[in-house]
Amino acid sequence: MGKFKQVFNWLEYVFLMGSKFGLFAMMLLVSGDAIGRYFFGKPIVGTYEIVEMYLMVVTIFLSMSYVMKIGGHIRLDVVFDKLPKTLQKRLNFFYYFLTAIWMSFIGYYGFQTTHEAWVENLTESGVVSFPMWLSYIWVPIGAFLLCIRLLIMCVNTLGPKSELKGE
Amino acid sequence: GDSSTSSEAENKDTIKLKVADSFPTTNLLSSEGIVYFMDQVEKHTDGKVEFEYYPAEQMGKAGDFLDLIQTGTIDIGYTSYATDKLPLSEVPTLPGAYSTSQEGTQIFWKLMEDMLIEEEYKPNDIQPLWAVPIPQYQIATKNKKVENLEDVQGLKMRATGTMEYALDELGASPTFMAAPEAYTALERGTVDGVVFPFTSFKPYQIQEIVNYSTGNVRLGSFNVIYSIDSKVYQNLPNDVKGSIDKASQETMDHLSKVLDEKSKKLREEFSKQMKITDLSEEELKKWDEGLEPVWDRWAKDLEKRGIPAQKAVEKYNQFKDEVNK
Amino acid sequence: MSIIIPLLLLALLLIFGMPVAFAIGISGSVGLILAGGWEGFTGILLTAPYASVKSFLLSAIPMFILMASFMTVSGVMKDLISAAYKWLGKLPGGLGIASVFAGAVLGAVSGSSQASAATMASSVAPEMKKYKHKTPFILGVVSISGTLAVMIPPSIVLILYGILTETSVGALLISGIIPGLLTALGYIVVIFIWVKINPDIAPKISMNPTTKEKIKSLSSVWPMLIIITAVLGGIYSGIITATEAGAVGALITFLVILFMGRFTLAKINQALNDAIKASTMILTIIIGAHIFGYYLTMTQITQKLVMFAEGLEVSKYVILLIIMIVYLILGLFMDQMAILILTLPLTFPIIMSLGFNPIWFGIIVAKTAEIGLVTPPLGMNVYVASGASGLKTSEGFRGVKWFVLMDLLVLSILVLFPILSTWLPSQIK
Ligand code: NA
Ligand code: NA
């Protein structure tokens, strides 16, 4: 389990870097497009599609698991904080497990969509053609990462020194 | 969709079909298109078929409806934006493919029956119900009057779909932005103009903000298509199928006619608010020639993926000659 | 059953502390299965998570948040607040009032209320905390100031209203100015009274800064001035669209801070981390809210509610009142955009047939949308503000309640005096 967690942490970190890259690239690309359009009459072709299809999807989906880990997915705390610790643990186990199942559906359907786009070579065409699989693939990756993170957190709630939010 | 509530259980013959698209019901393409279609079907079947209509992206975004049909979430959906899986249905949107919506509708439906149903609808487990290519897009500008090809050079234009190729060929800068942003972008000069058909000006209030528009260029257009789940269609009783087919044909005739007439009327109305310029025949010819490469670019991109786009173009032109003979 | 169970489930899961995004998404999914069968569930789960995120318009949210994170991490925001405190610290709730102004300025930059709330939460909130302001006050002010983006142009809500109803977008945007300013004024009044009654929530400045100190503090304000001028100037001169403003603002902020020598790699990394945390949290909630919205669509409950209102044989003002109450109730549970898309095709024709003014109704709808953004259980701005500032949601909802009362008062004024909404556009036409 320890070794597995180590590898998974590393994997999650790598994808988080991807997410940060997506965010920074979005800033540069959208600005570059606006500057090019206004000052040189030459927008950057494909900005709209690259932001929509790739950077947004990469930024959000690849970091879902990390945000879960650091307790970033907000919750209503008013009742929860007043509950006894053992009940809090049980509730958390239930929430994480339920969400893991739900996420596995999203991951599974996301995988199907990606696979189909890959096999059929689907593209969003325009002056530049953009492959669709490269847009869809971040959904199953992100969903399954979060799935594993949630299962790890489930196991943590069972342990003696478990923490409540995140790791 | 086979959900039926208790009140309908008494009337067991009732067939319920779920329909979804992305147009607000105030849009002409909805009220004279799918709404008209549903009314006709209900009329022809004496209320045997009932529709549950989810307009205005209530069930998904513009690109989602093919997936929603395929998964059985809905039965009938707007499939115009599934161009990744139904690319050949874009043929009539290429520049100069037709002059009026009625002409375009006739030509395209022939192509649909001859080739596209087999080629791209059956493999996706759907059946096209009806399709209406809408009136040709015009260049509407705020400050610059467009009278010839030189005027288009370097214009920053908001555009979508195959129009992007057309503007690129003509030397303009096609710019992408969400349609709701077009108004503000024009107002502040982020773009010099937009490419819209007259029938789509009002939903985005384009007539309020532009001062010039072309009246007769044929930059290309958009194809409104609705499809039904093949399995759902096959399982319908024969008389219902017949009614649906009949209503489909009626919708194509009705909507294309309404669009052509409305386009003329709107043009008149808008001419009070802006200067609308018709290009001379000579100038139009130059544009058509300038836009010729768009067809090749479009076809080549698809051929690379093994899609018989060249053949679709040839057939389209053949049917065009037939319709116009 | 298919209506009660998912709503009940949502309420329970939220109250008992399940992460909001998943509570909404999962109860929506249960609803989809009940209302649309297994096919309904698979179809929406296949399309909605991807399609909700794949949006150029929504890219404004992470971009504005990134801009705010750069300001916070580099300390530029700290300098600004410190200067504001020196100038306004004697005023009851001085920093709160400054925040309302900041919210109005951000509202003029951005069309998105969530982007605006998140920007303030990750920049202004931590600083107010340092000056010993109480959490409900901070979160209340930040969440509510974010809603100003709905009314002050540009406004995504009003543009969407214009498109759905084919009402003049230009006139709508202009008509939002007076109600927007009136709302801001209302918030300032609330802050003033609240601090008068309970001075502890927003302590006054203890020292007495000299005029010289005050003037000196302004020297640290210039980076902020450059950034705001550049972004506002960029938008209003048409160089950039409101959606692009976030990205350009973030880049300008990045460059200004780099130029000031205030960045280290670690700080840039920290800013990216903070921005991702807030953005992903918000977008995940948006995914859940979309799924829940599709479920509500399938039950056709909104149609039923509106039909009910339409069928009543009462005065037109009673019907208007019922429609507004329906909007306020839907606002408790749903995403504001989803509400407009679901209901306007139904309510707008009714309102027109009753002879009401379309621009004015747009403002009324936008105002109810503003209120929905801060009311529990689904109060997007409060989640955004709490999440981005790392403070507690419960204190957030506690903090906005006085502002919501003021909002209801402003809403009543707007309903009773349509001229507040219709006068300005009529002057410009
Ligand atoms: Na705004
Ligand atoms: Na709410």
From TrEMBL, chain A:
InterPro entries, per database record: DctQ, TRAP_DctQ
Keywords: Cell inner membrane, Cell membrane, Membrane, Transmembrane, Transmembrane helix, Transport
Transmembrane segments: 21-41, 53-72, 93-111, 131-152
Domain of life: Bacteria
One term under GO cellular component: plasma membrane
Subcellular location per the Swiss-Prot or TrEMBL entry: Cell inner membrane
GO terms under biological process: C4-dicarboxylate transport
Membrane topology type: Multi-pass membrane protein
Annotated GO MF terms: transmembrane transporter activity
Chain ranges of the Tripartite ATP-independent periplasmic transporters DctQ component domain: 26-156
UniProt key word Cell inner membrane: yes
Family from the record: Belongs to the TRAP transporter small permease family.
Protein name, UniProt field: Transporter
Taxonomic source organism: Lentibacillus kapialis
Lineage: Bacteria, Bacillati, Bacillota, Bacilli, Bacillales
UniProtKB/TrEMBL annotation, chain C:
Entry keyword Chaperone: no
InterPro entries: DctM, TRAP_DctM
Keywords, sorted A to Z: Cell inner membrane, Cell membrane, Membrane, Transmembrane, Transmembrane helix
Transmembrane segments: 33-51, 56-77, 97-125, 137-164, 170-197, 218-239, 245-266, 278-297, 317-334, 346-366, 402-424
Domain TRAP C4-dicarboxylate transport system permease DctM subunit: from-to ranges: 8-418
Superkingdom classification of source: Bacteria
GO cellular component: plasma membrane
Bilayer disposition of the protein: Multi-pass membrane protein
Any GO MF annotation of the entry: transmembrane transporter activity
Pfam family for this entry, one: DctM
Subcellular locations according to the entry: Cell inner membrane
Leader sequence residues: none
Alphabetized PANTHER family for the sequence: C4-DICARBOXYLATE TRAP TRANSPORTER LARGE PERMEASE PROTEIN DCTM (PTHR33362:SF5), SIALIC ACID TRAP TRANSPORTER PERMEASE PROTEIN SIAT-RELATED (PTHR33362)
Name of the protein in question: C4-dicarboxylate ABC transporter permease
Species name: Lentibacillus kapialis
